[in-house]
Amino acid sequence: MLNHYTMTSDGKKMPFVISHQVEVPFGFPGAGLYRYLQLTNQGVHCPDCGFWTTKVHEYHPKQVIAGCHNDTPIIDHFNHRRFVCDVCHHTFMEPLPWLKPYQRITVIGRQALLHATADRTFKAVGEAFGRSGQNVRVHVLEDFSQQPELSERSTPLLIGIDEISLAKGKGKYRLVMYDLSIPWRPQLFVMHESRRKDEVIKLLQELPQPERVLAVAIDMWRGYKTAVQTVLPDATVVIDAFHVIQASTKALGEVRKVVQKSLSKEQRDALKRDKDLFAEDFEELTKEQKEQLKQWEKTSPELSQAMHIHQKLRALYRCDDLEEALDLLIDWEKKILDSSLEPFQELLKTVWNWLPEILNRFHYRISNAKTEGKNNQVRTMNQQGFGYSINSLKARMQIKEEKTALLKWRKYQDRCNRRLNQNESRIAS
Q1: What pLDDT score was predicted for residue 13?
Q2: Which of 74, 108, 116, 186 would bridge with 66, disulfide CB 3.0–4.6 Å?
């Protein structure tokens, strides 16, 4: 039980005290912080004649969602009074300065409801906040509709363009654009129904200040490159490292499948169990995992050769500058030409076709790695709700990004402070 105390909002004294409160922890039925309020003002001015009255006509029990506590709603219970004026005999409900007329949720409570949809479905949030899932969806879409249009937003300096299939590996592809400029800012910039080249061009033309864009990270699809060069001729196109390594991993997998056919059943089963090790960065493997790979190298010269070529390409993104990267690629090309591995011969053609854009990463070290991670978040959201409209999906993702923006900013500050301290220590030593 709590002692009486007075609440404040925006520096103003609120006309109620909390007599007591009960908390039902998250995970239990009816989870929430239940507060029982007592209104402290003895009377009000009549809205018609302006005279002061203290005569209560009747009481209306009211339940209001006031915010969020430990991922559960704060629910206020109180008696809302209807007064009657002694002069004009007009009856009226007592005005509540923290609550809009006819509302059962405060501004802070509505914000808490919106933030709750970042990790839970509309239906689950509605059950927690005593509303229907459709009502929650309406709140979310209303909030999203107030977001500025693409032509009214600040144009990012660095953009990541990718596509997403909500049913991973199949289904219709949608276009997504992310702001890669500032890590702590909400990064989802655009989600569009189609990734066709003409649609991408149209969206890029809507940017209010296209001349601000310095670089755009894409995968190896000509449509994106053509669209960027058409609308943003001064922007540098950067092929995302993730997709280059993904192509190399695919080539390595094809070599493994060919080798697999010549092995015994026990060896085939063992190779399938260890297949994920072949594509990993060798430097990040444990001692036992490295020993496993060495055994497979002895088993198959082709597999050994493919692993070394793959690891060589992975090392490209650990190079410090462009000259070092070019030397490494020349050595990598020589290893492929000296081999008879057809999948890597095809990969070599792909790399040389996109070589300028691949090497542009050493001018602008941007990547769509975070884009891929956020695409997974979007897919998870869609699966939670068994399929959403694109507007609902965009709205939920926007809320999630806004909710975590402050946390990202604090982590970024911590990293900067650690680096600064390390540099100062090195200088001092």
Answers
A1: 61
A2: 74
